[in-house]
Amino acid sequence: MTAAGTTPGQVGTRRFRRPRGLSAHVFLIVAVLISVFPFVWTIIMATNTTQDIYKSPPKLTFGSHLLENIRHMLKTIDFFGSMLNTIVVASVTTLLVLFVDSLAAFAFAKFDFPGRRVLFAALLGFMMLPLQLGILPQFILVSKIGWVGTLSALIPPALANAFGIFWLRQYIQSGVPDELLDAARIDGAGFFRQYWNITLPMIKPGLSFLAIYAFVNAWNDYIWPLVVLTKPGHVTLQVALAQLNVAHNTDYSMVMAGVLMASVPMLVVFSIFARGFIAGATEGAVQGS
Predict the structure, then answer these.
(1) Which pLDDT score, from 0 to 100, does residue 60 have?
(2) What is the 3-state secondary structure (H, E, C) of 17-73?
(3) Within 10 A of 116 (CB to CB), how many other CB atoms are there?
(4) Closest C-alpha to 40, from 23, 58, 24
(5) Does residue 279 sit in helix, strand or coil?
(6) Positive or negative CA dihedral for 190, 196, 201, 204?
(7) 115-139 tens-digit pLDDT
């Protein structure tokens, strides 16, 4: 007997889909647990002592030493001063990356100019080069300008982000109709007005993702600030946290307490911009259906 309106084939298909759906859910749950474990382990290390971490087997429950580890960390480094420096650098860098990269991506995506393909191919080539290759020429340029030791030296190298230009170019090509730009040109809109009034409102999800990407990169940058920031009062957070690692007897609980506090601004930025990215993706899915 089968339910009214169903055939034996449909019942068999439903029975076949249930194991597949169950296995997919199990796989996703396992993937989430694996992804979340490093964050949970950071909290465990930050709330316990280093001696508890060294135990065999290590302690896997939350402790009561978080405030003690935070106080020890604050006495060792200028945490809030370094965080303020990092917030300023990461915020300014993110805003300028969004403007510069979106402007370049709009030109690559919707305008035909001499050398466009060659320049875009060179851009793709730059994406494949390790960032460490640019440290020496960047330092020479910054030293000639007189920015060595200042926070200003951290911003210009990150502005023309090759990945950001590539990402927004692909997004603009598929998300901004040529007919809409043609109509704007007929109405007398120039290049910048087409970019500012038409293109930017239509690529908010792409900009939200790039904002998260640029902010996290600027926040976690370590090598370039370590090289160019020579004044102790101008170090960024990652350089300051690295000072907690000593050659012998490193207090890993204190280090993890600093890492935990340093993760809070990134979580705030992610929660702000992820809404726009997810909302835009959901809106596109609804329109496509």
Answers:
(1) 81
(2) HHHHHHHHHHHHHHHHHHHHHHHHHHHHHHHCCHHHHHCCCCCCCCCCCHHHHHHHH
(3) 13
(4) 58
(5) helix
(6) positive
(7) 899 999 998 888 888 878 888 889 9
The number of residues in the chain equals 289
Which DSSP string do the residues of 116-130 spell out, in sequence order? HHHHHHHHHHHHTS-
How far apart are the C-alpha atoms of 238 and 254, rounded to whole Å? 14
Give the pLDDT confidence score for residue 210 in this predicted structure: 93
User: How many C-beta atoms surround the C-beta of residue 267 within 10 A?
Assistant: 10
Of 279, 278, 284, 276, which is closest to residue 208 (Cα–Cα)? Answer: 276
Structure token pair of residue 188: 């007398």
- 46 burial type by CB count under 10 A (0-12 exposed, 13-18 middle, 19+ buried): buried
> Of 250, 263, 204, 244, which is closest to residue 75 (Cα–Cα)?
244
At 270 the three-state DSSP class reads helix
CA dihedral (84, 220, 48, 246) positive or negative? negative
pTM: 0.83
| Coil/strand/helix, residue 146 | coil
Structure tokens at 164: 């950001």
Q: What is the pLDDT, as a whole number, of residue 220?
A: 92
The amino acid that residue 98 corresponds to is L
Cα 57 from chain centroid (whole Å)? 34
Select from 46, 44, 38 the least CA-distant residue to 68: 46
Q: What is the pLDDT of residue 22?
A: 83
- Distance CA(178)–CA(188), nearest Å, equals 15
